[in-house]
Amino acid sequence: MAYLALDTMDNDEGWFWSRIGSALARAKPDFAAESVAGLTTSRTPPHALNELVAALSGPRPVVLALDDADALTNPAITSVLADLLLSLPDSVRVVLAYRGDPPFRQGLLRARGQLAEIDGRDLALRPDELPAFFELHDVSLGPAELRALHKQTEGWLGGTKLAALGVSSHADPSAFVETFTGSNRYVSDLLHGEVLDRQHPAV
Predict the structure, then answer these.
(1) Exposed, middle or buried, 72 (CB in 10 Å: 0-12/13-18/19+)?
(2) pTM (2 decimals)?
(3) C-alpha span between 175 and 180 (Å, rounded)
(4) How far apart are CA 154 and CA 149, in angstroms?
(5) Most CB atoms within 10 A, among 41, 129, 139, 157?
(6) pLDDT tier at 23 (50, 70, 90 boundaries)?
């Protein structure tokens, strides 16, 4: 598996594709990192994508995971990446962790049966999963408190984890649950650091 956590620096074409090449070479020993060389210019030659697809082909399965892919805003990268997703051999899977809808022609991928989508609803904890989740964190809550927390977090895993941390350090778990909202310090720190601070000032 090749995993990359992306950020705004990856909007530089040369840097992005060299990172992709290095990651793929680690995941697929027979992959030549220079196979991405043709993609590092602002005008990608038509044959460069074909060379990369050919280099990825083979019986060995490869998974390329791109975390925070919404950091990619350079059209010269996203358009080539979109074409790559449509051309991948059967042995290659790409996992994109993305906030919002990615600009990678998902309509066509969906129509071809080449797209599996997992959104917040799929990742949310169900009410019946909460007791086991809190047990993992050595937190014991009654049914009423668990229902209240599920209603407040809507099953959001990050929020539920923060609630578990808060309850474990609070003298009165019931009182903590009653006051656990988006203004809780743990929640607001996460939202500011991971969501709001990443937005353009106009947003």
Answers:
(1) buried
(2) 0.71
(3) 9
(4) 8
(5) 139
(6) very high
* Residue (of 78, 96, 72) closest to 11 by Cα position: 72
- Virtual torsion, Cα 79, 80, 84, 85, nearest 10 deg: -20
User: Of 125, 120, 151, 147, which Cα lies nearest the Cα of 136?
Assistant: 125
Query: Residues 157-203: pLDDT tens digits?
Result: 888 888 888 787 777 778 778 877 655 666 666 666 666 677 778 87
> Which of 201, 2, 1, 198 is CA-nearest to residue 99?
198
The secondary structure of residue 182, as a DSSP letter, is: T
Length of the chain: 203
**Which residue type, as a one-letter code, is found at position 109?**
L
Give the mean pLDDT of 57-77. Answer: 92
- The residue ranking higher by pLDDT, 34 or 142, is 142
